[in-house]
Amino acid sequence: MTLLSYQIFKTVAEAGSFHKAADLLGLTPSAISHAISSMEKELGFSVLARSRAGVTLTNYGEHLLPYVNAVLNSDESLQQVVAEFNGMKQGTVKVGCFSSACTSFMPEVIKSFRKQYPAIRIEVFEGTYDDVSYWIKNGIVDFGFLSASSAGDLKLEIFYRDPLVCVVPKDYRKTSSGDSITVEEMAKMNFVVQRESTDADIQNYMKENGLDVPTDFHVVDDLATAAMVASGLGVCIMPELVMKDIPYDVKSYPLQPAASRMIGLAALTPQFMAPAVRTLYRHILDHCRNL
C-alpha cells in the first residue's frame, strides 16, 4: 500500500462519501473506489461499508484508522524535518480545542504565528474535552488544549489558571454575606448542568462539595447554558474564561470554597514533535503565559 492509498482511506472515512473524497483530493470517484478496493484486497478484509447513504467504517476500519493516521503524521514529520534542514519552516499543524480555548486563545495565536511563520498551515478542530482527548490519542490532531481534570494519562503542559464562578440571573439576590457565593447557598438553587464531557472540572467541584442539586437541563453549549440562566431557569457554575464570550445579562460571583480549572497543552508524545508542530506548541505556551 502507498501513502496515497492511506490518504484516500483517511479522506473517505472523514467525508463519508467517495464523491466528496474525490472532490477534496482532486481525483475521480472511480479512482477513489478502485484505490479502496485494491487496499481491501491487499489487507484481506473490508474497511468500509457501502450503502446508498454513503460509506462508514467497518469494525476493522475503525481499528485501522489510528495506525493510518500515525503513518501519515510520520510522513508529514519527515517532510517538515527535511524542510527544516533546508532552512525553511513549513508544514501543517492540527490543533484540538475546547470551546473557550478556541475563542479566547486561538484567534490571536494564529494571527501572531502567521506573521512569523507564513508557510506553516494551522488546522483547528473544536470539540468537547472527550473529543480533543480522542483526537490526540488517535493521531487526528498533533496536540490540543485540555484541562488537568480531563487530560487523563496524557502529558499536560499547564499555562493558565481559570477560576470557576457561579452565574446567576441579573435580578438574583444573594442570601449569604460577602462577595462570593457559598456551597450552602448554591445547595438551595436549581441548576443548569453541563455534561461531564463538556466541563469535567465543574462536575468534579459539585461532587467534591456535595452539590447534588436538582436540574431539568443537561446541555453542552456554553451559550445555551447562559441563556437558560438569564431566563431565570436556574444557575450554573462556569469557568471565568467562558464568561468573556457570554452576551446575556447575567451576574457572576466567585465560589466559596474557591476552585479553578488548570488549562494546558496535551500531546501524545511531546518529546517527538515534528518541527512545525514543536514551533506552534512553543508559540502557544509563550503567548498564553504572557496573558
TrEMBL record:
Annotated InterPro entries: HTH-type_LysR_regulators, LysR_HTH_N, LysR_subst-bd, WH-like_DNA-bd_sf, WH_DNA-bd_sf
Taxonomic path: Bacteria, Bacillati, Bacillota, Clostridia, Lachnospirales
Pfam families for this protein: HTH_1, LysR_substrate
Protein name: LysR family transcriptional regulator
Transmembrane segments: none
Key words of the record: DNA-binding, Transcription, Transcription regulation
Gene3D superfamilies for this protein: Periplasmic binding protein-like II (3.40.190.10), Winged helix-like DNA-binding domain superfamily/Winged helix DNA-binding domain (1.10.10.10)
KW Transcription (keyword) present: yes
Similarity comment: family membership: Belongs to the LysR transcriptional regulatory family.
Record bears the keyword DNA-binding: yes
CDD domains: PBP2_LTTR_substrate
Chain ranges of the HTH lysR-type domain: 1-58
PROSITE patterns reported in the protein's UniProt record: HTH_LYSR
GO CC annotation: cytosol
Gene Ontology terms, MF aspect: DNA binding; DNA-binding transcription factor activity
Organism: Bilifractor porci
Highest taxon of the lineage: Bacteria
